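Dear U.,

For the methods section draft, I wanted the exact inputs and outputs in one place so we can describe them consistently. I've listed the two proteins in the order they'll appear in the manuscript figures. Please don't edit the token lines directly; just add comments below if something needs changing.

First protein:
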Amino acid sequence: MLIHIKNAKGKKDRYTLLSSSFLELLRDYYKTYKPENYLFEGHNKQQYSSSSAQKILKNAAKKIGLKKRITLHTLRHSFATHLLENGTDIRYIQELLGHNSPKTTMIYTHVSETTIRKIKNPFDNI
């Protein structure tokens, strides 16, 4: 499912993907909390600051016993990496991330060893 995000990173509007399984969770959340201005609101119905969002992520990671360092950027990087590993064209990933240059997207996404192992040598077809 494609969703429109207003004033995303860099104050840009963009489209991104929303898992259909998350849609039900968001509906339940919306019915319970009835946000007015932002889907996820902080104190006094205000927008979460990036530092508040980072604290929420760190607390969640601590709760599940995650030992690795995690940031909001880690989630963005992981999203891009999983798209790439699942065969999504780099140009679509560039659009979803809101990058102006494909070079930025190439730096942003690393190629995993698992993906490299899936590459078939052309000489195997001879």
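Second protein (the one for the lower panel):
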Amino acid sequence: MRYNIYLIGYRCCGKTSVGKALSKLLSQPFLDTDAVVVQKAGMTISDIVAKNGWDAFRDMEKNVIDQTTLLNNHVIATGGGSILNPDNVRNMKKAGRVIWLRVSPETIRDRMSADTETIIQRPGLTATGNINEIDAVLLARLPLYENASHIALDTDLLGIDAISRKILGLTQKGDT
């Protein structure tokens, strides 16, 4: 393989967990674009958004995604909103295979409610807040995820290892 694997999808779909597992299977480096933004900014995503707004966060995210296009053979977990910028989509598609981890609103709600990092890492995207906004935001983003992806996987009923192995099989077969 001579390309990156980009994982996209809504919050709590498993991009980071699957990315780490997949990188081990492939013996390739893993990168989480949200973690890089946090590291460079020296503050949490919630703090970035509270202090500078979503546009500033999205600009930082775009810069990180631009930098990933210079890499080869990496597994990259992106932020849930990375697909909002057409430049990000174009760059990810050029630099690798884009895998959409599809998940139902119910599963997202369950995972988000159980995750202690939600408040720190997932500020609300709308005035209704994280849990209440899921249906509307996910519905609005579905065509963007679809357009951005080479492969879409329904992941509600699969564990991290099963998802990782499925991606491995699809990318090694060239079914992209």
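Candidate sentences for the figure legend, describing the second protein: The CA atoms of residues 142 and 164 lie 22 Å apart. The chain has a mean pLDDT of 89.

Thanks,
Y.
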